[in-house]
From TrEMBL:
<keyword id="KW-0378">Hydrolase</keyword>
<keyword id="KW-0325">Glycoprotein</keyword>
<comment type="similarity">
    <text>Belongs to the glycerophosphoryl diester phosphodiesterase family.</text>
</comment>
<keyword id="KW-1133">Transmembrane helix</keyword>
<feature type="transmembrane region" description="Helical">
    <location>
        <begin position="25"/>
        <end position="51"/>
    </location>
</feature>
<keyword id="KW-0472">Membrane</keyword>
<feature type="transmembrane region" description="Helical">
    <location>
        <begin position="63"/>
        <end position="82"/>
    </location>
</feature>
<dbReference type="GO" id="GO:0006629">
    <property type="term" value="P:lipid metabolic process"/>
</dbReference>
<feature type="transmembrane region" description="Helical">
    <location>
        <begin position="132"/>
        <end position="153"/>
    </location>
</feature>
<dbReference type="GO" id="GO:0016020">
    <property type="term" value="C:membrane"/>
</dbReference>
<protein>
    <submittedName>
        <fullName>Glycerophosphodiester phosphodiesterase domain containing 4</fullName>
    </submittedName>
</protein>
<dbReference type="Pfam" id="PF03009">
    <property type="entry name" value="GDPD"/>
</dbReference>
<dbReference type="InterPro" id="IPR030395">
    <property type="entry name" value="GP_PDE_dom"/>
</dbReference>
<keyword id="KW-0812">Transmembrane</keyword>
<feature type="transmembrane region" description="Helical">
    <location>
        <begin position="436"/>
        <end position="458"/>
    </location>
</feature>
<feature type="domain" description="GP-PDE">
    <location>
        <begin position="167"/>
        <end position="424"/>
    </location>
</feature>
<dbReference type="InterPro" id="IPR017946">
    <property type="entry name" value="PLC-like_Pdiesterase_TIM-brl"/>
</dbReference>
Length: 512
C-alpha cells in the first residue's frame, strides 16, 4: 500500500512540476481501473461458476460494451504511462527479481484451483479430440509454470554469509517526507534521522551565489507568484541572491502535503516549516561539516547570457574549500573534471553514468551515482572489485532497498528515512530454501490436481451409473449433464405418480 501511495505522490509531483498545478489524476486512473477490472473479475467468476454447473454465460450487449471499454482503457492507460514514465517499466522487471518466487507460488495455486472447472468440463465433453486439446493446453501451461523457477534470477537468493554490508542512506533533498525539500529544516531532519550523506541541487544566482534549488524555476517550491508576480516563469538562475532570500520555501509543503505526512508533524514543526527559506550552498555545507556527513550535489550550469556561466565551477569549488573538507564532497559535475581533479585531488570524483573500468580509473572516479533501474549484481561487483562504490537513486521502497542491498550497492539516495530500520533484506533465502519451497509447491499442486480429476471422474461415472441408460450427445458438450438431470426428474416423477396411485389400488383390492 505504501508503494502504491508513493507512486501516486510521485505522479502528482510530476503533474505539478510540468503543468504548475496539483491534480491527482493518477489517483483517478487507479480508481477507474479498480472499478473496471473488478467488474471484469466478477463476470469471470460468474462464467466459471456457470461452467462448473454445465451452463454457459450469455452476456447482454451492455456487458459486452463494458468489456470493450475496459480493454480500451487498459491499452490507453498503458500507452500513456509508457510515454510519461518509460523508465519505470524497468521497475517491473526489478520487482520480479524479488517477487517472482512468490508469484510462482500464487500462479501454481491459481491453476490448481482452475483444475476444478477444467476437470468437470473435460469429463463432460463429447469428443475425444476436444478432450485431448483441452487437457494438453492445460497441462502444457502447468508444466511450464512448474519449470519457471529454473529461469528465475534474484540476487537475494544467495548462500548464507555472502551478503555484503547494508547500504548507507543519502537524504534526497534532505528529508522531504519530514520537511519541505531543499531547506535547512529538511537537511537537519535528515541528519537527525541518521542518514550518512545529503543530496541536493545547486543553482548559481545572477550575482554569483550558489544556492539550493532543484527546478529550473522557483514556482513549485516558493511563493514567487506572490512576491514577484511578473517573474513566475523566470529561470531561478536569473534571480539575485537578495531576491531569493525574500521567498518562502516551506508554506507550499504544508498546503499541498505531497507525501501525506504533514499531520504527523508537531505544531512547532509546522511553524518551523512554514517559515523556511531557500538556503545557500554554504549553509548546507555547514550542516554537513558540523555533523560529519558527505554531500552529493548536482550543479546546474547557468543559462546563456548569465554573468557567471563560464566560471560557475570555480565559484562552487572556492565555496567548498571555505566551508567543508573536500573529502566529504562527492563531486558529480563532469565538466572540466580533469582540471578540477588537479586543483583538488581530495574530492570524491563521482560519475553519473557507467563506463569501462579503465575509463573510470583514468578519470579518477571513485564512485558512481546511477538510477536504480541500472541495478545489476554483476556490474556492481565488478566496480566494487576496483574500489569504485555505487550509489543508486531514488530508492524509497523496502523491497527496492532490499534488492539494492543484495546487489551490493554501497549507498542509496532516498526520500524514505524509515529504510534505516531495515536490518535484513526482505525475502532473503538460500538456494536450498528456495529449492525446497519450489519442489514442495509443485508436488502439493500435482497431488491436488490428480485428486480433483479422480473425484470428477468418479462423480461423472456415478451419475452415469445412476441414470441407468445409455446417453446420446445431440445437444452439445453439456447434454449428458442435462439428460441425467431430466432422467432423475423423470424417475422422481414416476415415483410420485406410483405413490399417488397406490392408495386407490389398495382401496380397490380391499373392496374386492
Amino acid at each position: 500500500m505504501h508503494r502504491l501511495y508513493y507512486s501516486i505522490c510521485m505522479h502528482c509531483r510530476f503533474n505539478f512540476e510540468t503543468l504548475g498545478f496539483w491534480f491527482p489524476w493518477s489517483l483517478v486512473l487507479l480508481v477507474v481501473a479498480a472499478v473496471l477490472f473488478t467488474y471484469i473479475s466478477l463476470l469471470l467468476v460468474l462464467a466459471v461458476c456457470l461452467l462448473s454447473e454445465g451452463q454457459r454465460l450469455y452476456l447482454h450487449w451492455s456487458h459486452k460494451m463494458g468489456i470493450v471499454v475496459t480493454l480500451a482503457f487498459a491499452v490507453s492507460a498503458t500507452a500513456v504511462l509508457s510515454e510519461v514514465w518509460s523508465k519505470e517499466w524497468k521497475t517491473l522487471l526489478l520487482s520480479l527479481q524479488v517477487t517472482a518466487p512468490f508469484l510462482h507460488v500464487g500462479g501454481v495455486l491459481f491453476l490448481t484451483l482452475l483444475s476444478w472447472p477444467i476437470a468437470l468440463h473435460f469429463f463432460r465433453m463429447n469428443k475425444r479430440v476436444h478432450q485431448v486439446c483441452l487437457l494438453g493446453v492445460y497441462l502444457g501451461v502447468f508444466f511450464s509454470l512448474y519449470l519457471v523457477p529454473l529461469a528465475m534470477y534474484s540476487p537475494c537468493i544467495r548462500e548464507a554469509g555472502t551478503l555484503g554490508p547494508k547500504p548507507t542512506l543519502l537524504g534526497h533533498r534532505g528529508a522531504p517526507m519530514l520537511a519541505p525539500e531543499n531547506t535547512l529544516m529538511s537537511f537537519e531532519s535528515a541528519v537527525e534521522a541518521g542518514v550518512d550523506g545529503l543530496e541536493t541541487d545547486i543553482t548559481i544566482s545572477a550575482d554569483g551565489v550558489p544556492f539550493v534549488m532543484h527546478d529550473l524555476t522557483l514556482q513549485r517550491t516558493t511563493n514567487v507568484e506572490e512576491v514577484f508576480p511578473n517573474r513566475t516563469h523566470t529561470p531561478a538562475a536569473l534571480f539575485t541572491w537578495s531576491d531569493v532570500q525574500q521567498l518562502n520555501a516551506g508554506a507550499w509543503f504544508l498546503s499541498w502535503d505531497p507525501f501525506g505526512t504533514v499531520s504527523s508533524l508537531s505544531p512547532e514543526q509546522r511553524a518551523l516549516a512554514a517559515n523556511q527559506t531557500v538556503p545557500s550552498l554554504a549553509e548546507v555545507l555547514g550542516v554537513a561539516n558540523r555533523t560529519g556527513r558527505t554531500v552529493l550535489f548536482d550543479l546546474r550550469q547557468p543559462p546563456p547570457g548569465h554573468p557567471y556561466r563560464d566560471n560557475y565551477l570555480n565559484i562552487t569549488l572556492d565555496l567548498i574549500h571555505t566551508h567543508i573538507n573536500s573529502s566529504q564532497v562527492l563531486w558529480l559535475p563532469s565538466d572540466q573534471r580533469g582540471e578540477i581533479q588537479q586543483v583538488d585531488p581530495e574530492l570524491q570524483q563521482t560519475a553519473g553514468q557507467t563506463a569501462s573500468i579503465q575509463e573510470l580509473q583514468d578519470n579518477h572516479i571513485t564512485s558512481l551515482n546511477l538510477h536504480y533501474s541500472t541495478m545489476s549484481l554483476q556490474h556492481i561487483s565488478k566496480y566494487r572489485s576496483v574500489n569504485i562504490s555505487v550509489n543508486l537513486y531514488v530508492v524509497n521502497q523496502p523491497w527496492l532497498y532490499s534488492l539494492a542491498w543484495c546487489s551490493g550497492a554501497s549507498s542509496v539516495t532516498t526520500n524514505n528515512m524509515l529504510l534505516r530500520d531495515i536490518h535484513t533484506p526482505l525475502l532473503l533465502v538460500t538456494p536450498e530454501q528456495y529449492s525446497v519451497m519450489w519442489v514442495l509447491t509443485d508436488l502439493v499442486s500435482a497431488a491436488l490436481i490428480v485428486c480433483i480429476f479422480i473425484f470428477h471422474w468418479w462423480r461423472e461415472r456415478g451419475l452415469h451409473f445412476w441414470s441407468g441408460s445409455r446417453q446420446t450427445h445431440k445437444t452439445g458438450p453439456y447434454s449428458k449433464f442435462r439428460t441425467e438431470l431430466s432422467d432423475v426428474w423423470s424417475i422422481s416423477s414416476g415415483n410420485v405418480r406410483t405413490e399417488l396411485r397406490t392408495p386407490s389400488t389398495l382401496h380397490t383390492i380391499t373392496e374386492e
